Amino acid sequence: MNIGILIFDDVEELDFVGPFEVFAQASRIVSGIEVSLLSKENREVRCRYGLRVQPDHSLTNCPPLDLLIVPGGKGAREYARYDSEIISFVRRHASQKQIASVCTGALILAEAGLLKGHKATTHWSALDTLREYPGVEVVGNTRYVREGNVSTSAGISAGIDLALDIVKDLHGKEVAKKVARSMEYPYDDS
Questions:
Q1: Domain range for residue 80?
Q2: Does the active-site annotation cover 103?
Q3: Contact 86/8 with Cβ under 8 angstroms?
Q4: What are phi and psi of 14, to 5 degrees?
């Protein structure tokens, strides 16, 4: 399973590092999981609080993905959701495979038209912004929403919850529990 996590300038660090950790830990238990970071261009990305990250692939040279994770942060709200290349990439991927957002990454999915006709959530501070997109049934006071091939999560740590739920669906409850335990992360397997 190839998992790509989109990063961009001013991305919220934990929005992408949390799910990255979940899937990287799962790859130690289950073979065949590959996790990579993607950016518009294959150049260093400066995250919201100064962390600098070198992505593995650009949008034009990334391998086929089974799951694309779109994080949030200031960069999602102010730049990435208005970038036509990022929106086209997200739209192309979601037409065939699973896609998930963390926090305000949901605004990128909404801008790409992927949330129309779906329930979705985001960080509490951006719920009203998400409501501005027609046809999106915005759900507050929840950690994450999964509908078909589209999943959205609330802020930061909710992305870890969503990633663990995806691991549970793909590889079973025991694998998800082992991943959470290795991270010393509380896990409700219900």
A1: 2-183
A2: yes
A3: yes
A4: -70, -20
In the chain, the percentage of residues whose pLDDT exceeds 90 is 94
At residue 187, the pLDDT reads: 86
Rg, C-alpha atoms of the chain? 15
How many domains are contained in the chain?
Answer: 1
CATH number of the domain bearing residue 165? 3.40.50.880
Q: Of these residues, 103, 120, 163, 176, which one is catalytic? A: 103
Would you call 47 helix, strand, or coil by DSSP? coil
Strands 34-39 and 2-6: parallel
Task: Determine, yes or no, domain membership for 190.
Answer: no
Counting every residue written for the chain, the total comes to 190
Q: Is residue 75 part of a domain?
A: yes
Flag whether 153 is in a domain: yes
Which pTM does this prediction carry? 0.97
